[in-house]
């Protein structure tokens, strides 16, 4: 396969040069970029909120929704706005979602006894709309549910109400219109209707109403001024407005015996009729309800009208479904309706977690790590930036921001669905590589993102690396490019008669999400742009994470390739991503980490492939040599004959090398990152380790640390036993790699049988358990218990747990 990829990239670059005159190529790139910008402009790009809409533009329009039960004044403290682990949902999120056109989100709110749906759709003209629908659970039809929509404009421009707001609220049926204009949007309007006649607003008698202006059967509107970087706090601002209103009522009627109904007290009051840049619209319903919000550009010739919404939503969902069937085709035993719903929801939630982040972050460039004591250090950050990032997130409730190590895994399923989107996200990440080649492993950009991180974890340090998973994507990407070119009937390697495209000027990119695979010019142009940054990142990685060879008289095949994660402590190696996984004790600068050298091998291979794609033969040869050196050094330095596995290395008190073999995920990296020579005897040992129930095999997936290890299930039990889906995916993918085709033929029959059995059962075990836990709780989780399969850690963890969608697409067994 890898050799084929080499050929392929040469082929692609020749093809690209041959096909197009320069101006055509420029036109192609321009058209593509225009389409990308437009189709990805708006989205639920504030994934840390239940529904937060914004464009991929800093300081622009931000909109959102929050809701609460208005029958109890205390519920002011229990508003649904920021995705919160503690709020009691039987699952929430996108059941169907396509980042280019929209989809459906459902909230099964157990505590409020309400099932809320928010459909979000957008069109080619830059318009979008939301349909909000609520259905109380049986027996709770009398509950008062209050829904607040807000929109705020930051930066230049204005946003204002188009109709005078009556202080006692808008009557039944009255629509509300906001109009605005900003740097990017010449003129736009936001319409909020009152929904169908079946809606019932909360009706109170006179005595229950605190003030004529606080009648919850009306729609209430308030506007105020919020400075830049504050619109995201809309819920907190709402809380302040309500508290002020309540205090004022108490001050006015200190002795009243009439306690007004909470739904009146919890109604927004238009105290001063002021017009600012932040606008709230509040509706309080009893029973089932629905209403619509539409955003249209004034100049648009194809505005979204509320009455067309049902049809447009139907079209959006139908389109999603058709695409899903095409790209994530389920293989046995998962090819049935139940698993389809599961897979659709997982991929949708993963893509619905894509966000746009903007702002500064905190960096400590001064503190050096103490490599004597290895104690945790409190970093002192200074702001740098502002930067922007377009990225998916590991968990909307717990980790609503970009994580370097998670992102590569998260993009693997998305790559199946929308290749161009993945490239857009990768580009955004690579733009963050600084002059030194460093990129912060956690991206906490701006105050909204920062508000979700305890202060001791906010500061990033430029000596700290993290597994370069983003580089994994390139091999997958080039494999896909080959499949696409093959399916176009290009006879591989024969460039005499490819399907000639004379003019690209007329391409309509609508519905094309693999343009980089169809038009090699785009892929090559992309690679050219990112290559310098990647080189500098690669050099930074190798330079800063280097391990010692000479000083400890180690003489492996290559004197250059040995690595050690910087910044570990006695108990943790956060940089490695496997925080509490057991490592050699005491920590020592002599340590060499087998997972790290494997990651550097993956990076090197990707660099080689990109260099080949760009026709940079010298670079490609250089990377190829390093890749080979790394493969050799993994065997020379890290293979322990006695333990029959790959191990970390450290030294004893006399400075002599000793293996540190904590069997588990770390032992597998040369295998999972495909750095073992196909046919090597070590493959069998590794598969035996994986398949042994006394070591790594559990009924729910491969456990992170062997049952036989003294630290198994001790302390935090984070990477010391539980099953993690990302590594299980890598194991499956490697079993496919080593067990099929030419590589498979190199295995002896017994090893092959074991590989096939392990693959088939592992795939089934992992998917079935994640499915089962989702069925019973409504959520995906960060990890699963290796003894009973039960969920552990953060919930709504659609990050790499979303890889089950790709597992279901994998073949049922090896062939
Ligand atoms: C769209 O509408 C058609 C016709 O009413 C219906 O059969 C279909 O189920 C709808 N599709 C979706 C995804 O709602
Ligand atoms: C692969 O393993 C599965 C599960 O054990 C088995 O059903 C299948 O027959 C095996 N395939 C071959 C070709 O042996």
TrEMBL record:
Compartments in which it is found: Endoplasmic reticulum membrane
Keyword terms: Endoplasmic reticulum, Glycoprotein, Glycosidase, Hydrolase, Membrane, Signal, Signal-anchor, Transmembrane, Transmembrane helix
Name of one Pfam family that matches: Glyco_hydro_63N
EC number: 3.2.1.106
Secretion signal, residue range per the UniProt entry: 1-21
Keyword Signal: yes
Record flagged with keyword Plastid: no
Glycosyl hydrolase family 63 C-terminal domain residues: 307-809
Family: Belongs to the glycosyl hydrolase 63 family.
UniProt-recorded name of the protein: Mannosyl-oligosaccharide glucosidase
Top-level taxonomy: Eukaryota, Fungi, Dikarya, Ascomycota, Saccharomycotina
């Amino acid at each position: 396969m890898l050799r084929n990829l080499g050929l392929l990239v040469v082929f692609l670059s020749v093809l690209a040069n041959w096909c197009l005159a320069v101006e055509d190529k420029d036109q192609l790139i321009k058209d593509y970029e225009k389409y990308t910008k437009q189709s990805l402009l708006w989205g639920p790009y504030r994934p840390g909120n239940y529904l937060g809409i914004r464009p991929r533009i800093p300081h622009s329009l931000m909109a959102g929704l929050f809701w609460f039960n208005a029958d109890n004044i205390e519920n002011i403290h229990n508003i649904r706005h920021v995705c919160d682990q503690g709020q009691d949902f039987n699952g929430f999120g996108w059941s169907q979602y396509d980042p280019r056109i929209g989809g459906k989100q459902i909230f099964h709110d157990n505590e409020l006894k309400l099932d809320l749906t928010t459909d979000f759709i957008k069109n080619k003209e830059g318009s979008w709309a939301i349909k909000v629908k609520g259905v109380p659970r049986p027996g709770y039809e009398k509950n008062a549910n209050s829904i607040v929509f807000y929109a705020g404009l930051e930066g230049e421009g204005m946003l204002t109400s188009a109709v005078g707001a009556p202080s006692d609220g808008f009557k039944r049926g009255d629509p509300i219109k906001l109009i605005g204009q900003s740097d990017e949007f010449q003129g736009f309007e936001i319409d909020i209707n009152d929904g169908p006649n079946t809606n019932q607003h909360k009706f109170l008698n006179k005595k229950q109403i605190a003030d004529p202006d606080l009648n919850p059967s009306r729609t209430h509107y308030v506007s105020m001024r919020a400075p830049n970087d504050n619109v995201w706090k809309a819920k907190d601002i709402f809380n302040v407005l309500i508290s002020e209103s309540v205090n004022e009522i108490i001050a006015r009627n200190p002795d009243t015996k009439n306690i007004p109904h909470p739904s009146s007290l919890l109604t927004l009051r238009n105290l001063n009729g002021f017009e600012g840049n932040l606008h709230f619209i509040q509706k309080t319903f009893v029973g089932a309800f629905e209403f619509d919000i539409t955003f249209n550009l004034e100049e648009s010739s194809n505005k979204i009208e509320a009455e067309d919404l049902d049809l447009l939503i139907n079209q959006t969902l139908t389109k999603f479904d058709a695409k899903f069937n095409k790209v994530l085709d389920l293989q046995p035993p998962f090819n049935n309706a139940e698993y389809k719903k599961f897979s659709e929801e997982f991929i949708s939630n993963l893509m619905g977690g894509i966000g746009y982040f903007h702002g500064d972050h905190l960096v400590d460039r001064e503190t050096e790590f103490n490599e004597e004591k290895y104690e945790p250090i409190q970093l002192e950050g200074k702001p740098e930036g502002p930067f922007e990032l377009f990225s998916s997130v590991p968990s909307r409730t717990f980790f609503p921001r970009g994580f370097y190590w998670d992102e590569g895994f998260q993009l693997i399923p998305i790559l199946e669905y929308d290749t161009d989107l993945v490239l857009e996200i990768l580009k955004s990440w690579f733009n963050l590589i600084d002059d030194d080649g460093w990129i912060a492993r956690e991206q906490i950009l701006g105050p909204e993102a920062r508000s979700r991180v305890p202060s001791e974890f906010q500061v990033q340090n430029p000596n700290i690396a993290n597994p370069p998973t983003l580089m994994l994507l390139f091999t997958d990407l080039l494999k896909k490019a080959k499949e696409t070119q093959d399916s176009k009937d290009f006879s591989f390697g024969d460039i005499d008669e490819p399907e000639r495209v004379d003019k690209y000027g007329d391409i309509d990119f609508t519905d094309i999400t693999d343009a980089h695979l169809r038009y090699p010019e785009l892929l090559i142009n992309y690679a050219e742009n990112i290559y310098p940054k990647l080189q500098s990142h690669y050099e930074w990685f190798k330079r800063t994470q280097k391990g010692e060879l000479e000083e400890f008289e180690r003489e492996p095949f290559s004197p250059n390739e040995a690595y050690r994660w910087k910044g570990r402590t006695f108990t943790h190696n956060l940089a490695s991503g496997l925080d509490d996984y057991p490592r050699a004790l005491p920590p020592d600068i002599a340590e060499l980490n087998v997972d790290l050298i494997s990651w550097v091998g993956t990076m090197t291979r990707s660099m080689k492939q990109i260099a080949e794609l760009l026709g940079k033969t010298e670079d490609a040869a250089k990377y190829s040599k390093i890749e080979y050196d790394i493969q050799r050094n993994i065997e020379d330095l890290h293979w322990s004959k006695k333990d029959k596995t790959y191990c970390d290395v450290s030294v004893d008190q006399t400075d002599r090398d000793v293996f540190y073999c904590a069997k588990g995920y770390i032992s597998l990296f040369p295998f999972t990152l495909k750095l073992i020579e196909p046919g090597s005897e070590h493959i069998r040992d590794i598969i035996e380790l994986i398949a042994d129930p006394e070591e790594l095999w559990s009924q729910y997936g491969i456990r992170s640390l062997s049952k036989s290890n003294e630290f198994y299930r001790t302390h935090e039990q984070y990477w010391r036993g539980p099953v993690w889906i990302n590594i299980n995916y890598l194991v499956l993918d490697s079993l496919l790699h080593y067990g099929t085709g030419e590589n498979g033929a190199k295995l002896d029959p017994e090893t092959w049988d074991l590989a096939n059995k392990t693959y088939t059962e592992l795939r089934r075990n992992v998917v079935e358990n994640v499915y089962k836990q989702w069925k019973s709780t409504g959520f995906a989780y960060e990890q699963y218990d290796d003894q009973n399969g039960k969920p552990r850690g953060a919930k709504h963890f659609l990050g790499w747990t979303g890889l089950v969608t790709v597992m279901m697409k994998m073949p049922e067994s090896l062939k």
